[in-house]
Amino acid sequence: MSTSGGSADDLTRRSGAALGAALRSGEVSAREVIEAHLELAERQNPALNAWLTLDRDGALAAADEADRKLTAARRDRAALDGLHPLLGLPVALKDLVSVRGVQCTAGSRILEGYLAPYDAHITERLRDAGAVILGKTNMDEFAMGSSTEHSAFGPTANPWALDRVPGGSSGGSASAVAAFHVPYSIGTDTGGSIRQPAALTGIVGLKPTYGRVSRYGIVAFASSLDQIGPFGRDVRDAAAVLHAVAGRDPRDSTSAPVPVPDELLALADDDEAAASLRGKRLGLPREYFVAGMEPGVEARVRQAVAALEAAGATVEEVSLPHTDYGLATYYIVAPAEASANLARYDGIRYGPRLGDGDTLGNYLRTRGEGFGAEVKRRIMLGTYALSAGYYDAYYLKAQKVRTLIKGDFDALFEAGFDALVAPTSPTVAFPMGARMADPVSMYLSDACTLPVNMAGLPGLSIPCGLSDGLPVGLQLIGPAWSELELLRLGRGYEALTADAEWRGAEPAELALADNPATRGPSAGRPVPA
Ligand code: GLN
């Protein structure tokens, strides 16, 4: 452990909950906590390229503000208990979340230099909680991808193996948490972009129910599928972030007026959490053990299922018969919505304007040079699927199949299953470059996550061990608004495996990332905010 600079008293190795307790007791100051995380992120970013922006000045100012609140509250026990658990703690935002005055690229050249003129809803909520925004993280361009290799600013490395991808599209946010730069971060998940990178980097990631978190101020990819959610190294930390950002916001008409349970902040300790698994009814969808699944991944998932059964849950094999159509329908619906959402990048309203010709000439050059190949592929697919004559054959048909996919899940939850258990990703982290030449092989990375977005449901990925030294994720899928229940199940599994050897393992190549001589594929140098 010491080889990667992670000694027991290293603040960056503690959970968010433990850091919060240390802040409230006065053991450490928010400034010390923020300094420690900033320093690590700055040192390792050349190797990992997880960050596109690090806001040292803004973060330290927010830390000092948190210290003032902590000092005032420490005079009165009740005031101390009333502080939000995120107060004074560092968080990373995927670079498609608007932070007023800070660059927001969505991983694209077409937004390079664009400064968000306002805060996203979730940015406001995190600021209200007193969380400290450390910076913005790398991502696939407009969140299209499963590896973060489609970023215009170079790929992000996986701290478990620097020549492998961290998953995507929220790979920067996942890598930053796995490498201890922050205890938690924010990603978005349109087809798997929180759960899959969480699985590939060995952390927890939650895709909430569609409508749980306001999308106001988030760069849109596919509006009927996009959801914002948290990453953490454990379930409790992820739950605390969800608690801060969830809830109705009138500025996003799809955000639902569903209460956010305060129990998210009080998930049970080990014994109670493990005991709560007794009597749970879980379904194991057979279609999720897809062709091409790595045997090591399947073995870890089946082992996790056996552990849940041993703890008193019942697990029954079930069928989600339309799973096979998930990929095909997603790649009609998501590109169709993307082609509409991305029409706004015209070189007039956002980011750089290229060309000195007429309006049309500027438009063509700005979009021609501003968008990468994957984004253009999606715009063409989407425009085709929406065009006269093809709309009914493709888009309308896909929407009908989407209803069938949702019906599969509804039937199981109506039959009384508490949740479904499945792999998150069919493989562990794959080598950089392995899927870049074949778009369909990249799309297949999300075969186990896409249907959940199509149905609007919540999905949680939690680590369940290693295969060939690389992390494997276990996915828990629940009915709409069941985040608390999913997180409780996840906490239960965490409790069962608290002493497992793999839990103590740090990402194998963190020490390499720590060496200033190690340069990642793009030698990431984040810009100051
Ligand atoms: N990998 C999928 C895609 O490329 C999902 C991405 C996401 O969830 N943002 O569309």
Can you offer a commentary on this structure?
This protein is α/β, with parallel strands linked by helices and 529 residues long. It has 18 helices and twelve strands. The protein has helices at residues 16-25, 30-48, 56-73, 77-81, 121-129, 171-178, 195-201, 235-245, 270-275, 295-310, 326-341, 359-370, 373-386, 391-414, 439-443, 450-454, 483-496, 510-514; strands spanning 51-54, 90-94, 132-137, 184-189, 204-207, 227-232, 281-285, 314-318, 419-423, 459-467, 470-477, 527-528. A hairpin with a 2-residue loop joins strand 10 (459-467) and strand 11 (470-477). Bound molecules: glutamine.
Task: Offer a quick outline of the entry.
This protein is α/β, with parallel strands linked by helices and 529 residues long. 39% of the residues lie in helices and 12% in strands. A twelve-stranded mixed beta sheet has the order 8-7-9-11-10-5-6-4-2-3-1-12, with helices on both faces.
Topology of helices and strands:
Layout: H1 16-25, H2 30-48, E1 51-54, H3 56-73, H4 77-81, E2 90-94, H5 121-129, E3 132-137, H6 171-178, E4 184-189, H7 195-201, E5 204-207, E6 227-232, H8 235-245, H9 270-275, E7 281-285, H10 295-310, E8 314-318, H11 326-341, H12 359-370, H13 373-386, H14 391-414, E9 419-423, H15 439-443, H16 450-454, E10 459-467, E11 470-477, H17 483-496, H18 510-514, E12 527-528
Parallel strand pairs: 1-12, 2-3, 2-4, 7-8, 7-9
Antiparallel strand pairs: 1-3, 4-6, 5-6, 5-10, 9-11, 10-11
Helix pairs in contact: 2-3, 11-13, 11-14
Glutamine (GLN) is lined by residues 143-146, 169, 189-193, 221, 334, 446.
